[in-house]
Structure formats: structure tokens, C-alpha cells
Amino acid sequence: MNHKGATNGRSLSEGNPQKIRVLMYHRIVDAIGLSIGYPRQCLHVNEFRRHLTFLERWGFTAITFEDYRLFQAGELNLPKKPVILTFDDGYQDTYELAFPVLREFGMRAVVFVVGDRGLKESVWDQPAILPTAPLMTGEQILELHRAGFEIGSHSLTHERLPSLSREKAWEEISRSRELLEILLNAPVLSFAFPYGESNETTKKMLLDAGYTIGCATYTGPPTFGSDPFEIRRTLVPSATETFGMGVRTLLPFGYYSWLRWKAKVVFTNARMMASGDGEVEAEPVLEGVNLAEKS
Ligand SMILES: [Zn+2]
Description:
Blueprint: E1 4-7, E2 10-12, E3 21-25, E4 27-29, H1 32-37, E5 42-44, H2 45-57, E6 61-62, H3 65-72, E7 82-89, H4 92-104, E8 110-113, H5 138-146, E9 150-153, H6 166-184, E10 190-192, H7 200-209, E11 213-215, E12 234-235, H8 242-250, H9 253-261, H10 271-274
Parallel strand pairs: 3-7, 3-12, 4-5, 6-7, 7-8, 8-9, 10-11
Antiparallel strand pairs: 1-2
Helix pairs in contact: 2-4, 6-7
């Protein structure tokens, strides 16, 4: 454990960043039909409230990537069980439905929005996959920011960055940061790759553009922080019961991936969940999940 910059008897930089879990959400909805029809993209607000209840009961504290940056700088301790709640795309329901519930629980989140403020709805959502939905206004984004939420960039127009020319990819990455910083009058340091698609070139561009964090979806090392520009996140789909939530948040990430891969395994021992806070050695991470999901 690090001990530096002791203040008032407390040592700063305490905590284990490897324990940071990053959850990924898209839309929070109040129409049951959407959460049933699109369980990976849409979560009913009542279910979302159950997620937060679970996190609260198990002692998780919601932090942001900015908190992690301050931890790295020796200016902030990490809580015992840190979790980062991320929302992609900047849907209006993030503001209207998720924000009030998060506030109820005293939790903050990281919201990734597109930099092109001319985009009023999620034109990138294909109707066959997910109906388009209104995006937050600049004022709503500002309100989240004022409430302590971290606003990150989700590119300029939600293109698949590795498919673009170098110039266009750079514009999506760097220009979106500039525009969001003008909106917020504050630094924007985190980025989420649209569709979770990145490569070494676009990851390097994040660094050059001044970001310190790049979020992937289902790729990246299982240990938080090993690759700050390819942070792996965990999706919690609709109809995930308490046990599924426990597997996703309490087990070490390597275990979670392994269990997911071994989907046929029958779990009979609830103690496995409780061991998540212990130093269980991570199993090798086996890919094999559907990488083509939206983000
Ligand atoms: Zn997205």
C-alpha cells in the first residue's frame, strides 16, 4: 500500500486501484417494452434502482475516473470497494431517469457524450437494433457536471474510429474534447470508444489529444489500470438477478470473464460471491463473448 502525503493523520493514495470495477450502462427507461426488447441496451429504472441498492448494501462507493486520477497524483484515497458507473451516448433518459435515482443514493457517474452538440438524437442507433432516442441538451450536461458527475467524450459523431482516415479519427477524438471543454469550462480527460472499437493508432491519439482514460467495452486487460486507454467494462443486462450482479461486481474480473465463458457451470456455492473482496488469484481471461455489441 502506498503511503505518501500524510494529512491529518491519514495517508493519501491509500486503496487498491485493481479493485475498481467499471460498469457500463446505455439507456435507463421507464417503458417495460424497451427493457424486454433491448435487454443489453435498455434497463428499466426500477431495475437500475435495484442495482444501486445492491451496490450500497455491499459497501461499494461510486467514484469517477477523475477521482482515480487524483488517487494516482497522491491527492485522494480510494474507498475500500470502488465502482465507476458509466453511461454511454448521453441519452436524455440518463438525465431524466438515471440522474434522480443516482442522486437519491448519493452516487455520481461518468457520462460519455458526443461532442457535436448539433446532434439532437442518437442517429447512429439503427432502428433494427435500437430505436433512436433524444440526447441530452447542453444545459442538462452542464447540470450533471455541476452535480459532480464526470463528463467524458464519446467522439464527435459516434463513428467507428478504426474505420476512419487518420485525419478524421483525429478530428473525432481531439475536436470533441475541445468542444466539450468549451461547454463545461473544465478539462475533459476521459473518452469512450464508440462501439468499443479501438486500435493502437486511436489509443495513441487519445494520449496525444490530452486524455488520460480510454474506455473499451469487452476488451482490455482484466486488471483495472493496466492499460488506461483500453479500460474493460462490465455490462449488466436487464433481468440480472442479485446473484448475477454479485458475480459481476464482487468477483475479481478474471473470474467473472471465466465464469461468463463457462456459462454452463452450475453455481451452488454462494461463498464464491463473498470471496470477491479477497485476494483470489485471477484466472486467465478467455475471450469469446459477443464483441459486436453496441456501446
Ligand atoms: Zn455509443
